[in-house]
Amino acid sequence: xxxxxxxxxxxxxxxxxxxxxxxxxxxxxxxxxxxxxxxxxxxxxxxxxxxxxxxxxxxxxxxxxxxxxxxxxxxxxxxxxxxxxxxxxxxxxxxxxxxxxxxxxxxxxxxxxxxxxxxxxxxxxxxxxxxxxxxxxxxxxxxxxxxxxxxxxxxxxxxxxxx
Length: 163
Hints:
This protein has 163 residues and is α+β, with helices and mostly antiparallel strands. It has helices at residues 23-32, 39-44, 75-91; strands at residues 46-52, 55-60, 100-109, 120-129, 133-141, 147-157.
């Protein structure tokens, strides 16, 4: 049996280094390639592709290294991409650059995803953005437009960042 091999690079986390940009500006700069993506995005190999006020879209091309032992994409990996989409969507309505963290995440898997599925798109939408919490939802579609997963989450709004 031949073992596969993968090498990749990543940029260390920027932390709050880009706090001078409003949240939506940061997301747009990442889409344009002007700001580095997170180390998680480099590891999992997803990328933001579109965003507007209250929503964001991330894309993942399923690969063999995303698979579980059955040859389908590991559910937790999909949850990680969904969680990243939630964060990007929340950033678009977060002009104060408040930090936040996921309190809960509920995923529903509808169809198996495999390397031959083609790219999947995760569209996250902010439902509520309050002083202490935010709620978001997402749908995941395959290249044929079929719904393959959906999710909801509550996020805790934390402190602000100095500008």
